[in-house]
Amino acid sequence: MSNAQRIAIVTGAARGIGAAVARRLAADGMAVAVLDLDETACGAVVAEIEKADGRALAVGADVSDEAAVEQAVERVAAELGAPNVLVNNAGVLRDNLLFKMSVDDWDTVMNVHLRGSFLMSRAVQRHMIEQKWGRIVSLSSTSALGNRGQANYAAAKAGLQGFTKTLAFELGKFGVTANAVAPGFIETDMTAATAARMGVPFEDFKKAVVATIPVARAGQPEDIAHTISFLTSEGAGFVSGQVIYVAGGPKN
Ligand SMILES: NC(=O)c1ccc[n+]([C@@H]2O[C@H](COP(=O)([O-])OP(=O)(O)OC[C@H]3O[C@@H](n4cnc5c(N)ncnc54)[C@H](O)[C@@H]3O)[C@@H](O)[C@H]2O)c1
């Protein structure tokens, strides 16, 4: 399928990694639905894409809300075309040590990352299967391997790896691949908020993290967008069920 026939939905795309992925897929020639909680917050990314002669649509939806997801996917199908690329990127943090973690901290993280990716993938797959072509990429994290203060997030991000492999088994025969990208430290509002919560200036926080990264720099949203551009390309059709760590070095 040519890039011009590709219709992508990127969740959590109003800022950060999702915004970079939306811009990159649009530059690759896809029409892109920029989906986030607040439709107006998606406007700036849509405007940037349109300024670069791309095609984009702002869509407001909470990925953990079943009815909102169904409506959003049908709106994309009606206004942009039947979606055949999905990037499950929307995410939140509710970090706390286990003994302080509330049920709400647990449920919120599970609902956005896991339930959200499930609902979005289920709603989009029918369009992919009809077209006998699709690409699903979900954002995992190096935290899937375990991280202090992130029992909820680590469980959700590890869960997304199992989810991804299962989609690869079920959807492969319909021309649909499913992969996960697991970023390490990427400079975004999310990591800035983590530094703020710990009471550390972001520059100091960054310096301490960079000291542990083999390529000796912080990751940028564009590093993730580049990998997702590859995974959603025509040529990546034999790559499925994989987790690619994009972390400036190996993780163990
Ligand atoms: N920044 C990092 O270092 C890093 C590392 C590993 C994985 N990740 C993952 O990458 C993804 C993007 O992270 P980021 O750093 O760009 O985060 P961010 O906080 O900057 O952006 C996340 C976006 O998701 C949106 N969102 C949150 N809940 C939503 C919901 N229910 N429905 C729709 N949209 C929702 C937010 O409004 C926001 O625009 C997340 O899944 C995150 O877990 C980030």
What structural class do helix, strand and pairing data support? alpha/beta
Element order: H for helix, E for strand: EHEHEHEHEHEHHHE
Number of strands: 7
What ions, cofactors and ligands are bound?
nicotinamide-adenine-dinucleotide
Physical arrangement of strands within the biggest beta sheet: 3-2-1-4-5-6-7
N→C terminal distance: 37 Å
Low-confidence stretches: none
Percentage of residues assigned to helices = 40-55%
Give the mean pLDDT. Answer: 97
- Overall geometric form: globular
Task: Report on the biggest sheet.
Answer: 7 strands, parallel
Gyration radius from CA atoms, angstroms: 17 Å
> Strand portion, in percent?
15-25%
Number of helical segments with 4 or more residues:
8
